[in-house]
Amino acid sequence: MKNGLTISVMAHAAVLLWAVVSFAPRTLNAPPSESMPIDIISTTEFSQLRAGARNAPKTETPKPLVEKVAEKKAADDPIAKIVQKPELITASAQVPPPAADAKPEPKSKAAENKDPKPDPKTDAIADVLKKEQKPEPKKEAKPQPKKPDKPQPKFDANRIAALLDKRDPQRVAAAGDVVNHTLAFGARTGDAPTLSQSEIDAFRQRLKSCWTPPAGAPNADRIKVPITIRLKLDRTLAAPPEVEMRASDPYTQAMIESAVRAIIQCQPYTMFSVPRYEIWKELPLSFDPVEMFGGG
Amino acid sequence: MRNRNLRFVELSLSRRRLLAGAASLSFAAIAGGALSRVQAAPRIAITEGSFQPMPIALPDFLGGSSGDSELARSITQVVAADLRRSGLFAPIDPAAYIERIVNTDAVPRFADWRAINAQALVTGRLTRQSDGRLKSEFRLWDVFAGQQLIGQQYFTTPDNWRRVAHIISDAIYERLTGEKGYFDTRIVFVDETGPRERRVKRLAIMDQDGAGVRYLTRGEDLVLTPRFNPSTQEITYMSYGQGDPRVYLLNIETGQREIVGNFPGMTFAPRFSPDGQRVIMSLQQGGNANLFVMDLRSKTTTRLTDTAAIDTAPCYSPDGQQICFESDRGGTQQIYIVAAGGGAAQRISFGSGSYSTPVWSPRGDAIAFTKRGQGTFGIGVIKPDGSGERLLTEGYHNEGPTWAPNGRVLAFFRDPGGNSGPSLFTVDVTGRNEQRIPAPSYASDPAWSPLLS
C-alpha cells in the first residue's frame, strides 16, 4: 500500500514536472490591428447633435427660389357637401390613334372580361366601360381598312411627333411669400453634414495651382500655417483669411503671406454647391508643405 | 419593523440614485466628448503647391528730371534682372501694365495689378538732393492683400546707383521669401585669358551680376583659389611667383597687400575663420598633409591633425566651432568633421567616388563639396550629420563651390575641356535655376563676398 502510494505520488510528480518543463509558455502572437475610435451615444443625443443649439446665433440660410409673390386664393370650403358628381372619364377612353392597332384586341378582351363581372359598387366606372366597349369595335373597323398592310405595332419614328405634347410651353413663375431670386432647394438640414471627399479634393487642387510656398527656409518642412476662411454664398471670401498663428521669424512670415495670397487669388471656389452652404461657409485649413520638401 | 423597512428603502433609493447619477454622468461625459469632437471639425490639409516664380510687377522708378529718369530706368532694370536671375521671381512685361504710376505716395489701383496676375508691386522714385546726393525710395506692395509691405529710402552718391539697386533687390527678396538677400555682394575669381598652354591668370573682382569687373593683379604670377574673409573686405589667395607658392592677404578697399607666409607644397589657399582673425590651411610634409591654424596678427601656427594621410581643403563652420576637411585616411577622399580645437575626426560622407573641396554653408545647415566619380564631376550638398546627400549639378569638370552669404545659392566653375576654358555658374541649393555669370573672358575659382552693407 505504501509502496503503491509513493510510486503513484512520484509518477504524478514526474508527469507534472515534465508538463511544466515541456509546455513552455509561448507568447501570444497578436498581430497589431487598426483600432477605430468609437463613441456610444443614445439616439436622442444623436438627434440633438444634429438639431443644433437653441440659443445659437441666427445664420443666413438659403431660401427657396421665389420669383413672384403668390396670389392669395380662397381655399375650398372643406365641409360643404358634394352635390354634383363630375363625369368620370377613364384613361382608356382616350387611346391615341396609332396605338389603336395594338390596343383594340387586348382592350376589347379586357372589356369583355370585365363585363361578366360587374362590380355593383363602382357603377359609374362600369357604365363608362360599357360605353367604351361599343366604340371599340367601331374603332377596330376604322383603323384596319385605313392601313391594311400595317403590320404588328412597330416603333415608328415618324409617329413620335404625334406622341409629343403639343401644348405651348408655359413656365410658371415660382410663387411664395417674399421674392427671393437665389436658387436653393433641398432640405435645410441635409443628411451629409460634412464636405464630400471630391469637394475637398477639388478645393485642394484649386489651391495647389495658386500656392507657391517659399522654398529655401532651413526648416521649411516644419512650418504649418493654420488659417480659417469664411465664404459668402457666391463662394468669395466674406472676410480676410484669419491666420491662427503669429510669425516668429521671417521664414514663417513669408510662408503665412504666401498662404494668404494663395487663398485670395484663388477665389471664387466654384467647387462648392449653394444648397450645402452651411457646410462650407467656414473652413479651417492647414497649409503644410512637408510633402513638398521630401527631397530635403 | 417599519423603521427597518424604511431604512432598507432609503438605502436602496440612495444606491439607485447613485447608479442613476453615475450613468447620467457617464452619458454626459460621452455626449460632451462627442459634441466637442463634432464641433472641432478636422482641418483641411493643403499639402501641395507649386514652386513657381512669383509674378512681380516693376514699373520704372520715377525720376525728377530727364537725366534722373534714365538713371531710374536703369535702377529698375537692375532690380528686375536680379530678381529674375534668382529664379524665384518672374517680372511681368511692362507692356502688360494697366495702371501708370505717377505718384509713389498714392495707393495703387490694386484691381489693375490683380488683373495681370501680379502678386507683388514695386514702385519707386529718385530725387536729387541739394547737396548732389541721390535719394532713392521705393515701396513694396502686396497686391492681393491690398497693403504695403515695406517702404525704404536710401541716400548715396549718384555713382553708387548699382549698389542702391542691389540693396533694393535684397530688401524685396528678404520680405517676400523670408531669407536674407545676396544681391549686394561681389565675386572674386581668377580671370583666364590666352591659349590653354599659356594661360594668363589674373585676380579679378566683379558684382555678382557680372558688372563692374576690376583686376587686382597684373597677371605675371600664377594666382589660384582666392578666398573671402567673411567679416571684412579682405581676400587671401595663392600666388606662384618665383617657384614657391606664397599666400597673400589683400584688402580690396585699400589695395594693401601683405604676405601671410611662404608655404612650399601648398595647393589650396587658406580659409578664414568666421571672425576673420585666423586662417586654416593644409601643409604638406613628405608624403602626407596636415591641417594647421594660423593667427593672422601674431602669425603663430598650431597643428590640428596629425595623421599619415593627406588632410586638406579645410573650412570653418559659421559658428567657428567645427572644421570640415577632406581626407583619404579611409582609403578614398571623403569628408570629415573635427572640432576647432582638435581631437578625433568624424567621417560624414560614405558614398562611392571621391569628395573634395568641402565648404560649410553660412546658414550652417549644409556642406557643399565636389564629387568625382565614374568620369563625371558634380557639385553636391550634404547635411553636417552626414544625411541628405544630393547632387546639384553634374558634368565634366564642375568644381570649386562657394556659398552666397544667405546660404541659398552656390557659385562654381565648369571647364568643358578642349580648346575652350572655364566659366562661372550659379545654382540654387534646391538644384534648380543654373545660370551662367557673364565674365569678360574665361573664369575659374570663384569666391563669394559677404554682404557689402
Description:
The complex is a heterodimer of chains A (296) and B (453). Chain A is mainly alpha-helical and 296 residues long. Among the domains of chain A are: 63 residues; 97 residues, Fusion Protein Consisting Of Minor Coat Protein, Glycine Rich Linker, Tola, And A His Tag, Chain: A, Domain 2. Chain A has 10 helices and 5 strands, in the order H-H-E-H-H-H-H-H-E-H-E-E-H-H-E. Chain A has a 3-stranded antiparallel beta sheet. The N and C termini of chain A lie far apart (85 Å). By secondary structure, chain B is of the alpha+beta class. Helices cover 18% and strands 40% of the residues of chain B. In chain B, strands 2, 3, 4, 5, 6 and 7 form a 6-stranded mixed beta sheet that branches. Chain B has a 4-stranded antiparallel beta sheet with strand order 10-9-8-31, with no helix packed on it. A 4-stranded antiparallel beta sheet of chain B has the order 11-12-13-14, with no helix packed on it. About 2% of the residues of chain B have low confidence. Chains A and B meet through helix 8, helix 9 and strand 5 of A and helix 1, strand 1 and helix 4 of B.
